[in-house]
Structure formats: structure tokens, C-alpha cells
Amino acid sequence: MTAIYRQDLITYIYCSHATPAMQPDDMSKIIQLSEKHNPQLEVTGLLTYGGGMFLQWLEGPHHAVHELMGWIRKDPRHECILQLHSASGLDNRLYPNWSMELVAPHDIQNVLEQAAERADSTRHAEAISLLLQLFDEGALAPLKQSAC
What we know:
26% strand; globular
């Protein structure tokens, strides 16, 4: 990946609801497209889907992440997109080797807890803490329920 200036590296975390346009084989298509296009955009992160809800952690250059979010907002499979966290001016990525890692809903809390252990940025730690709190409070319950 090309070097990104510190002020340009951002993290953007959102959740959204799936629409009836979301089909069972769409997740594999989304990941394939992400693995193809995200390296060109210098975007990395993770995606989980379950219980009719998406949760995605994006990191990369400001312009690329916002361009990608523009595509997601136009995607007929998403509705009610809610930004959960955004941070700019980061020194590093939390998921530098994941062009877009699909994380099973029953694994997402464990993945976040492991990331918290290696997070060397206060802003990454804050984002992870927020997501874990949302799981504990039930706001992201549809993701948990899909593990059953």
C-alpha cells in the first residue's frame, strides 16, 4: 500500500439494516468485490452480517472511505445506515492486512476483544469499547441472535 499521510487515515464504523433486496449469496459477492477493489482504494477493515444487520469497520484514506460509503448508501441492500464512530488523523490501521474480512456474527465480539488487546491508539480503543458496549446493551442484538 502507498504511504498515507497521518491526517488522511480515518476509521469509519457503521451499522445498517438489510433490505429485502439482500439475498443469501450476496455476502460472498460483497466480499469478493471488496477483496478486488479495496486494495486499489487502500481500504481495509471487517464486515459482519447477521439478523438482518450489517456492521462494518472501514479504515483508509479519507477520500476513499467516503467514496466507499457513498456507494454503500446507494446500495439497495442497505437502509437505515447509522454512523457509530469516526476518527481521523490516525497513525496506523487496526486491520492492515484485511482488504475486507468477513467475520461471523458469533465471532465479532471475540475479534473486537482481541483487537482491543493490540490497539495502540486511544481512538481505536474508544471505538472498540463503544462497539462492545453496544453489544452489551443490546443495540447490536440482531448480530448476536443470528449466532443461535
